[in-house]
Input
Amino acid sequence: MNLVGIELGGTKCICTLGTQSGEILASVSLPTGSNADHTLNEIKASVRALIAKQAQSSAGFQPAALGIASFGPLDLNPASPNYGSITATPKPGWSQTPILRPLGAELNVPTLITTDVNGAALAEGQWGAAQGLSNFIYVTIGTGIGAGIVSNGHLLQGLTHPEIGHMRIPAARTADEQASVWAGSCSFHGDCLEGVASGTAIEARTGQSARTLPQDHPIWDVVAKALAHMCHNLTLTLAPQRILLGGGIMMGHAHVVERIRREFLLSLNDYTNLTQLIGDEAQFIQLAGLGDRAGPLGSLALAKAALQGSNPAS
Ligand code: ZN
Output
């Protein structure tokens, strides 16, 4: 009984074959083009080819469930006629695109869909840095900022999936900007969290790629404070047992995590007994455990849930 996963990202898709213990048997990556139908057909062809090749080399290979972890926003209301579709996305060519229906029809197996960050959160719970926890948050800080929130073992889902990247935070100034505040890069909210701490914001503010910025660049103080405020808000709102920080910016700049912890504790200011409950802040706020495998493993974690007949998103 094997698993098939599709991670549909904003720039690339990864089709993965794996096992229920999180072993990746084979995978293939292809670009997410601006023609949704064409990309979805390419994904279907890639999955077919991967399965055929795997079945040749491993006689016992049996695709038994499919997990789809997609960029959003997604309609995840099972009662909606558009369930499993991308809704209004700024990505050209993808608004109002059904994802679950065309990809799910490819394999006649139990199938689940959720967002890519929700998938990554599930994978961290199954095989990564949140194993054994039923309340935790996985935050990805990359081009944008998003999170999968696991609450009592289920992904938090209400009106829609949470969009914590756009929470309001106190204005973040660099040390030499006391008199003025940067307007932020979010086209909807200006200096929301994503507008000051995402890779897009860092690049817009410094004129450099976040990848090449040195550790002592003043922007990291801004990013650390913004993400510490996020951790403050998430901790006081959702009372998680752990917050995991992943995504390209964090994985490439792990030095920021210690600064986030420091600013987080300063921000909490020893409120009630939270510091005691949190205990070791290095355990409470830590780097995600699966690195760049979080996405593909997220789709497999979802396939595993489909196989077990459970839907962590409901
Ligand atoms: Zn925003």
